[in-house]
Structures are given as structure tokens and as C-alpha cells.
Amino acid sequence: QVQLVESGGGLVQTGGSLRLSCAASGRTFSSYAMAWFRQAPGKEREFVAVIIWSGGSTYYADSVKGRFTISRDKAKNTVYLQMNSLKPEDTAVYYCAAARMHGIVVATTLYDYWGQGTQVTVSS
What is the pLDDT of residues 57-66, one digit of tens each? Predict the structure, then answer.
């Protein structure tokens, strides 16, 4: 059974940085796309970034491009989201997700597994 466990959220000031981690277990992820989504209060869950586990290709939402970096450590079965130059509008619960697809996937409905989420709050 696939498990995704996020960590690293917290409270940070505008302009600060955080690194989120997603520890994945339960199978090999060589044919998976791994992504981060976020959901702010009263809003729909939105795509943030995705990485292809095997080849390492990445894709970002325009709102985070140039500020966030997604990466993975195959040996640790962990996906990271390095978030720099944080803004109050980045405040949300951040979720890690896995899709059994070997390609860039941005739609929430195409993801098969989800973590429980970690809160990120950026104060102004």
C-alpha cells in the first residue's frame, strides 16, 4: 500500500524559505509522476509542481516558477519542494501526490495517492 507522508511545513515571514519533504513507501516509483499541490481556505486544490521519478523532468505552475524547486532522492524515496521568496498568497495546506503515469500530470483527478498535507503559513 502506497503511503505518502509530508513534513516541513510551518510559519515563515514574507521572503523566507521552507523545504517540504514527502516520504514515499509501499512500492517502487519508477513509473510514477510525483507532485505537490496546495489548497488555501475556500479555494480549490491547485497544482504546484511535478517531477517524473525516473528521468527527473519537472514542470511548475506559473505562480511558483523561479521561486520553488521540486526534486527527488531515489535512495531515500523522498520528494522535496524547496520554496524560496515566499509570499502571503503561498499560504495553504500543501499535499504530496503520486500518479501511475510516466509523464507530466497536472490534473488532481489523475493522481492516485495523496498525503495528509502540511500547513504552510506566510505572514506579511
Answer: 999 999 999 9
Assigned C-alpha cell, 94: 500543501
Q: How far apart are CA 16 and CA 29, in angstroms?
A: 31
| Selection from 79, 119, 95 nearest residue 38 by Cα | 95
User: Using CA atoms, how far apart are residues 90 and 105, in angstroms rounded to an integer?
Assistant: 21
Residue 39: exposed, middle, or buried by beta-carbon count in 10 A (0-12, 13-18, 19+)? middle
Instruction: Determine how many CB atoms are found less than 10 A away from the CB of residue 67.
Output: 15
C-alpha cell at 4: 505518502
Q: What is the CA radius of gyration of the chain?
A: 13
| pLDDT (tens digit per residue) in 16-58 | 999 999 999 998 888 899 999 999 999 999 999 999 999 899 9
Positions of E strands within the chain: 3-7, 10-13, 18-25, 33-39, 46-52, 58-60, 68-73, 78-83, 92-99, 113-114, 118-123
